[in-house]
Amino acid sequence: YGTSPEAKKVFMEEKSIKEVFDLAKSADIAVAGIGTLDHNSALTNAEFIPMEEFERLQKKGGTGEILSHVIDKDEFEEHLLSLDLEEFKKIPIRVGVAYGLDKKEAILGVLRGGYVNVLITDEKGANYLIEETK
């Protein structure tokens, strides 16, 4: 999170980093974990964002994350070194992986946003989605 938008721009123009992102953009299949926005999330455990920023995103209605992008994203994205979600959506097969009822809102947000078109989940998560979308 400490990376400024200017530093991000420099990183993204670096040849080796640009090559990796160009490869990702041309992929036929992508697999991404779907995470929650709770105090035990990957974003906070890896210290990608300060706790104050995390709590602000949570209060703004963020329900989960994919590729470290907060669903209901905001200006946090200016600091993020990750494949842009619109570029991610151009990959033909986008597999989301998440299980457990603690991730139910994150999974639903990712599906409603059209970020994945294949989902790997457990029975409890699948039953929740069936009931929620009836």
Describe it.
The chain has about 130 residues and is α/β, with parallel strands linked by helices. Helix content is about 40%, strand content about 15%. The chain is built from 7 helices and 5 strands. A 5-stranded mixed sheet has the order 3-2-1-4-5, covered by helices on one side. The mean pLDDT is about 80.
**Residues in helices, as a percent range:** 40-55%
Structural class: alpha/beta
Spatial ordering of strands, largest sheet: 3-2-1-4-5
Percent strand equals 15-25%
Beta-strand segment tally: 5
Concise structural overview:
This protein is α/β, with parallel strands linked by helices.
Secondary-structure map:
Layout: H1 5-13, H2 15-25, E1 29-36, H3 42-45, H4 51-59, E2 64-66, E3 69-70, H5 85-88, E4 93-97, H6 104-112, E5 118-120, H7 123-132
Parallel strand pairs: 1-4, 4-5
Antiparallel strand pairs: 1-2, 2-3
